[in-house]
Amino acid sequence: MSAVDVIGVSKSFAVKKATVVALDDVSLTVKAGEFVSLIGPSGCGKSTLLRLIAELDSPTSGSIAVFGKTARQARLDQSYGIVFQSAGLLPWRSIAANIELPLTLHGVSRTARRERVAELVELVGLTEFASSYPEQLSGGMQQRVAIARALAERPGLLLMDEPFGALDEMTRERMQAELVRMCAETAAAVIFVTHSIPEAVFLSDRVVVMSPRPGRIRAVIDIALGDVRGEKLREEESFFAGVTAVREALHGAPESTAATNAARGVDSR
Amino acid sequence: MTNTVVRRVLPPVVLGLVALLVWELGVTLARIQPYLLPAPSAIGKQLAVVFPSLWVAMLATGLNALIGLVVGSLMAIVFALLASRVRVIDHIIAPIVAAIAVVPIVALAPVLTTMFGATSESPRRVIVAIVVFVPVFVNTVRGLRQMLPVHRDLMQAYAASNWQVTRMVTVPGALPYIFTGLNIASSLAVISAVVAEYFGGLQNGLGSRITSAAANSAYPRAWAYVLGAIVLGLIFFTATLAIEKLATRRR
Ligand SMILES: Nc1ncnc2c1ncn2[C@@H]1O[C@H](COP(=O)(O)OP(=O)(O)OP(=O)(O)O)[C@@H](O)[C@H]1O
Ligand SMILES: [Mg+2]
């Protein structure tokens, strides 16, 4: 079963008499365990698409299924974890208490919570900060807490909206490497919104390139860099080829040049 | 450690002593009449004399202020919670609060005293509750509206119930605002409890002692009771601050 099926989804917002078409007839399927990035210029509807899948908003037309269920049922079942651009931690809760928030909300017992939190702080490398408060952590550390929180209930799907957007390049690359490792450990499907082409290529199995006004999927690019993605990958030819393929799809360049061994089959729609 | 304590405590104490000295010297040297301004030594002497009854009066006024403060604040917080959750209630309450905010307690006190009878503490407590309601309500409503969109989205993603959102996000986020309201309210509670006694009724509190001492031209004694009112106000204020420290450390 696929993790997400978006079928012919459109979304428009009414803004002062005018209507903004944020998404126009978008279809996308994400397989279980697959890592898919959404990339595109500002305002092309990436966040909107993610919010629709998360059922924080509902589509104007079209349908969305998450693990075969309606988006609403998937939300009520906690089938996904979500990470926003800002960490959105509760400043009055300790790091441990922030991570266990979803578990607390869903009535998980105290001992089970404590165990899970111990695993999660370990996973994101923040064990010694478990009893600290968000204000005492750097932006990157806070974002790792948000990721741990999203993973708390072992969701099969992780929705991430520019989670590293506010981080510097070095922290960002380290977080990407950690995300690759965590995804390998949890085997969750990921939909990852980003503005960074190298980030999308480094992380993804597929990169979905979107265009604005109205928001549409312009191309879907397969990135075949394998499962083991270390720091060395960033300097390899296949990585650069992927970056080039995505860039050209973004800027609407001829797609023939994108056909390299790293980016097989640019799937235009 | 002790050094910083000394540095923080010493200057105000020294300043206070110097001020008292200047006051004492000024009053004696300039021969200022006691009904204008009694000397600190005279007030001090009266303080020792009236202390037992001052203590009783402080307790009586303090209890009125406390009950009014607790009841008024609780009502304000409950109504603020309702107003932040139910739009209709918000529309109903807003004009009522605006009306309460401009009620002159000076005008209300005699009316309430007549209403409850001269042997009841209730009019004072009601007045305190009304006075306290407005700042607590206004600040709490403001605090409850501070919820960040990202927190709202997060709680929706977690399919949290309304009650869970209120308990885990809205109220903890509003606490600093609620305490801003309570800090203002705590001082107002003592002031209004004292002032309410100026308008008749039971003669057991600080306000009635101040008026009767002044009526008998016993000015140093009136000042001794005023001092009691100041101390009472400070106790209320610092107690609220202490509760705030406790509550906001672990929300
Ligand atoms: N709640 C809303 N009300 C009105 N218009 C909205 C709303 N949310 C999004 N839009 C509009 O929909 C379009 C897509 O917005 P969206 O936030 O999905 O873009 P995005 O691709 O995430 O952009 P960015 O990269 O800047 O985050 C924009 O034109 C935006 O103005
Ligand atoms: Mg966005």
Describe what you observe in this structure:
The complex is a heterodimer of chains A (269) and B (251). Chain A is of the alpha/beta class. Chain A folds into two domains: 1-79 and 157-172 and 188-269, Rossmann fold (3-Layer(aba) Sandwich); 86-154, no CATH class. Chain A is 34% helix and 27% strand. Chain A has helices spanning 46-53, 71-76, 95-99, 101-105, 110-123, 139-151, 169-186, 197-203, 237-251; strands at residues 2-15, 18-31, 35-39, 61-66, 69-70, 80-83, 157-161, 189-194, 206-211, 216-222, 266-268. Chain A is globular, with a radius of gyration of 19 Å. By secondary structure, chain B is mostly helical. Chain B has two domains: 1-32; 39-250, MetI-like fold. Chain B has nine helices and no strands. Chain B has helices at residues 2-29, 40-85, 87-101, 105-116, 122-144, 149-157, 162-196, 206-215, 219-249. In chain B, helix 5 (122-144) runs antiparallel to helix 7 (162-196) and helix 7 packs antiparallel against helix 9. Chain B is globular. The mean pLDDT of chain B is 87. The chains are: A alpha/beta (269), B mainly alpha (251). At the A-B interface, helix 4 of A face helix 6 and helix 7 of B. The structure holds adenosine-5'-triphosphate and magnesium ion.
Q: Low-confidence spans of chain A: pLDDT under 50, at least 5 residues?
A: 255-269
Question: In terms of per-residue confidence, which ranges of chain B show pLDDT below 50 for 5 or more consecutive residues?
Answer: none
Q: Within the largest sheet of chain A, what's the order of strands?
A: 6-7-8-3-9-10-11
The percent range for strand residues of chain A is 25-35%
CATH topology of the largest domain in chain A: Rossmann fold
The H-level CATH homologous superfamily of the largest domain in chain A, spelled out, is P-loop containing nucleotide triphosphate hydrolases
DSSP helical segment count of chain A? 9
Number of domains of chain B: 2
- The tally of helices of chain B reads 9
Q: Judging from the principal axes of the Cα atoms, what is the shape of chain A?
A: globular
How many beta strands in the DSSP annotation of chain A?
Answer: 11
SSE sequence of chain B, one letter per element: HHHHHHHHH
- CATH-defined architecture of the largest domain in chain A: 3-Layer(aba) Sandwich
Mean pLDDT of chain A: 85
In CATH, the homologous superfamily of the largest domain in chain B goes by the name MetI-like
* Helix content estimate of chain A: 25-40%
Subunit organisation of the chains = heterodimer
